[in-house]
């Protein structure tokens, strides 16, 4: 991994450790927990979109599989949280493989449609399998996360859990990008025909990254279930999948840090817009449009670009 | 003189795109260790031939045999893994990646690190990365590009881009390398450097199949030449025989296509 | 109700749904052909069609006939404004993914405006003619259904004539195939893009206005319709208008019969399940061709 990325990771870790000293209060820490959870999903999407060049319109499904696996297996079947967590990963991987292999063998954006489809189907399953999932009324009393029998009672603990796991995910992802696998993916982006000629099996890598991104989402979903203790199907619908995409694009999908930035921004934004009441959807749409129109490459590349354009212009 | 074995041969190769016959009944072979050039007027089917050999297009009929194994219908990345490497007529570098990284990608078939070992940065992956980096840098030195290792490949001038593409192809450790117009767009000095590179490749034991329009280069480096026109082989043999072959002369000067008077 | 009557009932419902999906699918296709963008705000044109007409007839008290055409005009204007403000500039440099998300943002923005103006309640319109059902083969069919079908078919025929018989229409098709070549022969691609948005908006408005008397309309009907219409467009072979139309009707019929004979739970998923099944068998869609499929990527 490049030196600059190691540095960024350390700085991020330091920030993570320090922020709770400044920010306190359950409300703000909760938002930060949600930010972290969203980051996990969006980092996976960034790998998928920015590096493997594929679009997933159904990532909320994997998020939901993680959440419901944790929820159902702990409440209805008395699984330990780690076993339930593992099952969530397994189911997500299975679904990803089942739709990924046929979709990614074909050229073009069939994964987009396949994920759209699986997203809807899984959403319907969540709604319809009432005995297991509780249907539209949701699943409640999901136990809190616990380590060695000590359950989490405070947002601060979840905060450290989420951001700790996220740091590991970031470390893993950055390692991947700066490896043979990452080069193969970036080569695919540069020239598919040349990548093929260099012995790179495109489908194989696309599928692997797709499954990996599904696993990230599943991890996020499982932690989410423990944190909120009540989940319902409408947290895992098409709109949510699209929101994840929006976070990625706003931050900049070609860079993992962009994904993080996008998740941070777009998780905080609705909270600040609550003030506006009937305006809130309108404001959200308007701000989103403004961001996209002025920074089509996302915030991470957009801010320096704006700096160069408007500030440096002042210097002769 | 003991003849070297055939490394590549095609047998009655046909390729049509819909109604258009691009390659017709083409049979030829390449001996291990030689430099064989494929020449012919524009549109004769030379790049199509390369695309057939490397699996980019599928064969309509006929066979291609590489090291005594049929490679009909194999996917491009599989064929690359078997030891056939190539460059492209229009440079297909990875423009956003650095010069060094482009060549490192070339090392892909010779390396193994997968998702798991890469993500967790296992020791064997780190060792392999070091090896890949060294290998790639060696190739850069061979092509004289070592000072530009960290520049974006897309920013190089054309001559160096073409050299880089050749270096990347060499990095795969091929047994056979297909060079598609490596000297196109190069001036005399650059062409000479490319010729030197081609000799260096041959000297390392790699067989070369070359498509080129620059006749002086072709006549200089080739052990054998095959001439294609309208997808058909019209001549095959050593340079001096080809130069004096009336069919070849006619193909290049044409019947009604070129009027000299 | 005996079986025959049931079938006719479902048929009518299916064709009704189908014509809406067909209109939305056609709208998707027109914009996709001109720009390569999937306009995820397509459903909002339908929504505006319905709600604007409600405003004109209910609040302003205009006669239905006039309202209808004014609604079409206004929604078309919205479509053109949308293109000019939010698509024109980004389309020059922004990556496709960003453009897609821009359409998502526009969809949210439009929904926000609609919610602000009309609130969250559903609204209704009077039927275009008589609200009394007609008996056809034992089934009670609303005359509005005939309006919906008739208007949709009229729209399809007009679009067909436009693209195949008029110079402008052919120019748009040319743009779709090769933008650079088209501009070299004097076709202004930007005007073609704006025209594509205008036409899509008109089609959406037509669908919205005609469906509201039966199905009501509220501010967030858009996304679900966009999803179904998108399925229709892809099913028909992305880029083939006639394919989108046929696929739209097919989807409507399958959805109606599935709801009627199997279960209503699957209603929302039907479109997607069919889409996935068909794509497994023929990835380029029912009417698409593989060669064209390779050239156009989503």
How is this structure best described in words?
The complex is a heterotrimer of chains A (316), B (261) and C (298). Chain A contains 14 helices and two strands; from the N terminus they run H-H-H-H-H-H-E-E-H-H-H-H-H-H-H-H. Chain A has helices spanning 3-22, 26-51, 59-75, 81-105, 110-128, 130-133, 155-177, 180-190, 192-197, 202-228, 238-251, 256-273, 280-294, 299-311; strands at 146-147, 150-151. In chain A, strands 1-2 form a two-stranded antiparallel ribbon. Chain A is globular, with a radius of gyration of 20 Å. Chain B contains ten helices and ten strands. In chain B, the strands form two sheets. Chain B has a six-stranded mixed β-sheet, sandwiched between helices. In chain B, strands 2-1-4-5 form a four-stranded antiparallel β-sheet, with helices on one face. In chain B, helix 7 (188-203) links the parallel strand 7 and strand 8. In chain B, helix 3 packs across helix 5 (123-143). The longest helix of chain B has 21 residues, at 123-143. Chain B is globular, with a radius of gyration of 19 Å. The N and C termini of chain B lie far apart (47 Å). Chain C is mainly α. Chain C has one domain (3-281): ABC transporter involved in vitamin B12 uptake, BtuC. Chains in contact: A-B, A-C. Chain A binds chain C through residues 49, 55, 102, 106-110, 112-114, 116-117, 120-121, 124, 127-128, 238-239, 242, 245-246, 249-250, 253, 278-286, 288-289, 292-293, 296-298, and chain C through 86, 89-90, 93-95, 97-98, 101-102, 104-113, 115-116, 119, 223, 227, 234, 265-266, 268-269, 272-273, 275-276, 279-280, 283, 293-294, 297-298.
């Amino acid at each position: 991994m490049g030196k600059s990325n190691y540095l960024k990771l350390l700085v991020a870790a330091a920030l993570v450790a320090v922020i709770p000293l400044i920010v306190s209060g359950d409300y703000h820490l909760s938002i930060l927990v949600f930010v972290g959870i969203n980051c996990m999903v969006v980092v996976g999407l960034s790998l998928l979109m920015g590096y493997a060049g594929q679009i997933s319109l159904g990532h909320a499904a994997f998020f939901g599989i993680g959440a419901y696996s944790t929820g159902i297996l702990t409440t209805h079947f008395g699984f330990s949280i780690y076993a339930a967590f593992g099952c969530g990963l397994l189911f997500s991987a299975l679904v990803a493989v089942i739709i990924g292999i046929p979709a990614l063998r074909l050229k073009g954006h069939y994964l987009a449609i396949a994920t759209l489809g699986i997203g809807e189907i899984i959403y319907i399953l969540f709604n319809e399998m009432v005995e297991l999932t509780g249907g539209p009324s949701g699943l409640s009393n999901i136990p809190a996360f616990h380590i060695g029998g000590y359950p989490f009672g405070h947002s601060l603990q979840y905060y450290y859990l989420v951001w700790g796991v996220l740091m590991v995910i970031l470390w893993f992802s950055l390692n991947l990008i700066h490896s043979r696998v990452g080069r193969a993916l970036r080569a695919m982006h540069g020239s598919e025909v040349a990548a093929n000629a260099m012995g790179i099996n495109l489908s194989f890598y696309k599928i692997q990254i797709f499954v990996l991104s599904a696993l990230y989402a599943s991890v996020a979903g499982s932690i989410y279930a423990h944190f909120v203790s009540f989940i319902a199907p409408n947290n895992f619908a098409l709109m949510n999948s699209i929101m994840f995409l929006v976070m990625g694009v706003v931050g900049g999908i070609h860079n993992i840090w962009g994904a993080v930035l996008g998740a941070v921004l777009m998780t905080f934004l609705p909270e600040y817009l609550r003030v506006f009441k009937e305006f809130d959807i309108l404001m959200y749409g308007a701000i989103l449009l403004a961001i996209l129109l002025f920074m089509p490459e996302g915030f991470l590349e957009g801010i320096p670009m704006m700096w160069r354009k408007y500030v440096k212009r002042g210097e002769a | 003189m003991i003849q070297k074995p055939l490394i590549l041969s095609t047998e009655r190769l046909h390729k049509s795109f819909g109604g258009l016959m691009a390659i017709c009944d083409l049979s030829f072979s390449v001996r291990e260790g030689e430099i064989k050039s494929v020449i012919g007027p524009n549109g004769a089917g030379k790049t199509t031939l390369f695309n057939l050999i490397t699996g980019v297009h599928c064969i309509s009929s006929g066979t291609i045999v590489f090291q005594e194994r049929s490679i009909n219908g194999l996917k491009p990345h599989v064929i690359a893994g078997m030891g056939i490497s190539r460059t492209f007529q229009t440079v297909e570098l990875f423009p956003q990646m650095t010069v060094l990284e482009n060549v490192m990608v070339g090392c892909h078939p010779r390396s193994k690190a997968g998702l798991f070992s890469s993500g967790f940065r296992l020791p064997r992956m780190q060792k392999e990365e070091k090896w890949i980096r060294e290998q790639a840098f060696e190739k850069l030195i061979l092509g004289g590009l070592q000072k530009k290792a960290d520049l974006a490949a897309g920013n190089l001038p054309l001559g160096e881009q073409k050299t880089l593409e050749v270096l990347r192809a060499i990095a795969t450790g091929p047994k056979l390398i297909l060079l598609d117009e490596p000297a196109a767009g190069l001036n005399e000095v650059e062409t000479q450097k490319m010729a030197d590179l081609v000799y260096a490749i041959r000297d390392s034991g790699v067989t070369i199949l070359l498509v080129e329009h620059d006749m002086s280069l072709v006549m200089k480096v080739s052990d054998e030449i095959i001439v294609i026109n309208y997808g058909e082989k019209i001549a095959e043999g050593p340079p001096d025989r080809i130069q004096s072959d009336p069919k070849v002369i006619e193909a290049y000067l044409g019947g009604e296509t070129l009027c000299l008077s | 109700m005996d079986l025959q009557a049931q079938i006719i009932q479902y048929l009518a419902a299916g064709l009704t749904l189908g014509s809406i999906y067909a209109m939305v699918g056609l709208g998707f296709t027109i914009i996709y052909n001109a720009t390569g963008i999937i306009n995820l705000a397509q459903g909002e044109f339908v929504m505006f069609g319905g709600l604007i007409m409600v405003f004109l007839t209910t609040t302003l008290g205009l006669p239905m006939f006039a309202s209808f055409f004014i609604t079409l005009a206004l929604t078309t204007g919205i479509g053109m404004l949308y293109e000019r403000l939010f698509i024109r500039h980004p389309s020059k440099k922004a990556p496709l993914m960003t453009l897609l998300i821009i359409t998502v943002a526009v969809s949210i923005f439009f929904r926000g405006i609609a919610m602000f103006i009309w609130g969250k309640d559903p609204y209704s319109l009077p039927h275009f003619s008589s609200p009394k059902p007609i008996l056809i083969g034992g089934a009670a069919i609303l005359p509005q259904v005939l309006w919906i079908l008739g208007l949709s078919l009229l729209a399809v025929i007009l679009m067909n004539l436009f693209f195949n018989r008029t110079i402008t229409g052919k120019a748009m098709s040319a743009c779709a195939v090769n933008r650079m070549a088209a501009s070299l022969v004097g076709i202004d691609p930007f005007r073609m893009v704006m025209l594509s948005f205008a036409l899509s908006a008109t089609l959406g408005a037509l669908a919205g206005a005609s469906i509201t008397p039966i199905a009501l309309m509220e501010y967030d009907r858009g996304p679900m319709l966009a999803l179904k219409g998108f399925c229709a467009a892809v099913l028909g072979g992305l880029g083939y208008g006639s394919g989108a139309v046929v696929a739209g009707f097919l989807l409507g019929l399958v959805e109606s019969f599935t709801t009627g004979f199997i279960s209503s739970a699957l209603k929302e998923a039907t479109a997607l399940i069919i889409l996935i099944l068909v794509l497994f068998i023929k990835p380029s869609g029912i009417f698409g061709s593989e060669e064209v499929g390779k050239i156009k990527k989503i």
